[in-house]
Amino acid sequence: MKEQLYGLITGILFGFLLQRAQVVRYDKQLGALRLCDMTIVKFMPSTILVGMLGVYLLLDLGLAKLSIKATVRKNMGSGLNIQQGRFSLQSQP
Amino acid sequence: MKTILDKGWSPYLAGALSGIILILSVWFTGKYFGASTTFVRSAGLIEKMLNAPRISKMDYFVKKVPKIDWQWMFVVGILIGAVLASASSRIFRWKALPDMWEARFGHSRVKRGMVAFIGGVVAIFGARLAGG
Predict the structure, then answer these.
(1) Is the predicted pLDDT of residue A9 greater than 50, yes or no?
(2) So what's the ipTM on this one?
(3) What is the tens place of the pLDDT at every residue in A20-51?
(4) Closest CA to B77 of A93, A3, A33
(5) B 40-79 residues with CB below 8 A of A?
(6) Nearest to B37 by CA among B8, B75, B85, B93
(7) Interhelix angle A2-20/B11-29, nearest 10 degrees
(8) B-contacting residues of A 31-60, CB under 8 Å?
């Protein structure tokens, strides 16, 4: 029950900010897809950058766990392999 | 003053504040923001009312148990928070057709509704296929 209450409070705060920055509006959503309104493009990286700093700090302090999707790990792995392959090809004399 | 309010907050500021809320959420409850699983669970909840034995046997719903969890309440909260924000800044109003749509595709609400429905199907299918 406590978990649900936290969810509700977090949602209300997040929803408030989404609306105040107008990023939930149709015009902003479609504007972003049509590359004619950058509001969302400004909002999202701001959240990600701030969130990233805090979450990594919590991770280093042992206060948080990352939730990485299995597919992301796999894709990152194969991506790195491809990059590594390219690199070793390029570094051949 | 009204025009300043109507412009809303800077997306950088609101975005950064959202980041802080995310950090606090991860810190206190270990929950990351997400929404799409809620749609799946809700579909499961509705189907459970119609055919409970089928749901209890489906592998998908054994893994994604149809229940009202943290994220379900988070999604409901977003709706409430957005209404509070628009009501408190006095910009709340009911609108069937967005201006941008109306200017391009005309006044038909049925057409708008159908396209929105198809768009919703594509969006949620893609989100679930990608796992989030």
Answers:
(1) yes
(2) 0.88
(3) 999 999 999 999 999 999 999 999 999 999 99
(4) A3
(5) 68-79
(6) B75
(7) 170
(8) 31, 39-40, 42-55, 58
